[in-house]
Amino acid sequence: MEITLYISAILVLCVAAAHSYLGERYILVRLFRRNDLPKIFGSAEFTTRTLRFAWHITSIAWLGFASVLVLLAHPPIQPRIIGLVVGITFLAHFAVALAGSKGKHLSWPVFLTIGVLAIYATNT
Fold first, then answer.
1. Is the pLDDT of residue 1 over 90?
2. What is the pTM of this model?
3. Most buried in the list 8, 48, 93, 116, measured by CB within 10 Å?
């Protein structure tokens, strides 16, 4: 069972990398060349930044799932470790959302709160 979990984790890592790389190269870049993107908060730049960070946050979430699969390969699993993986995953979401939107997209405080609370709750 351990090897199948590792294979699953490796496949998730591959999918995450392919999703970010191929999406950036073949979907997002071509989408952003369009002149008819909606102007949220007065410009298409916010729309572009939001689409880009939302696209890559999916890959970050998958990296968190890959980490959980690796942890499942080594029972018993401690809630503290799962909480740490979830917390770190959401702290990465926070960083990408904050930087990607220059603080304008209000998901970053929610992601920060989730990350901190997940780590705190499973370590106290």
1. no
2. 0.91
3. 93
